[in-house]
Specification:
A 3-stranded antiparallel beta sheet has the order 3-5-4. Strands 1-2 form a two-stranded antiparallel ribbon. The protein is mainly α. The protein has 11 helices and 5 strands, in the order αααααββααβααββαα. Strand 4 and strand 5 form a beta hairpin. The protein folds into 2 domains: 73 residues, Arc Repressor Mutant, subunit A, CATH 1.10.10; 108 residues, Arc Repressor Mutant, subunit A. The protein is elongated, with a radius of gyration of 25 Å. The longest helix is centred in the middle third of the chain and has 15 residues.
Length: 218
Amino acid sequence: MIIEEVMNREMDEKEKWLFDHTPSQVTKVKKISDLKGPKDEMAITEGLLYIVGEDGIKVEQIAMALDIDYDKASSILKDIQKKYAKEEYGIELVDYGGYYKFLTKKEIHPYAQRLLDLTKTNSLSQSALETLAIIAYKQPVTRIEIEDLRGVGSDMMLRKLLARDLIREAGRSEAPGRPILYEVTETFMDSFKLESLSDLPELPEHTSDEESESLFSE
């Protein structure tokens, strides 16, 4: 009863002033036309696709972010697909289970391999060793699972390891967005002189950074 009376009671002048001048605790979502930055819906969508990376984004999420209807969002994504399907682009927009994401075209892979062959050093970085250790022990494993264990983003590292033929794609998970699964390759096995994954040393209960690096020290 007390709550109902308060809600139904008309505010006095002081209460009205306080209500009008108290900042809201909820941030309102502005319209695209009110936001700073690119106004072109295709350009905005491309930026959102880049941000979500391998996780991908659904049509309805684009529609909500741009404050447009589903059909318009779907049309924008189709236009982006057509745009990047042209030979002049090295990436393409793919749809896996309703999730749209940018991927490097297969034709680029040989050049990526050559680039890393030109720039690689004899030893792998600490980040590379950590990523390889996780894949070797947990395979097949997704990027999200790797990042959960490492605590940092691993997208660029995975691309480098793919280009060096130390890991490969091993199908796709059934999780939302159907993320790529990764496993180590024969090149990895040869590089670390392993006949099988059973030759890997047993993991200690608590692995420090130094212990992680020593797992694959030659």
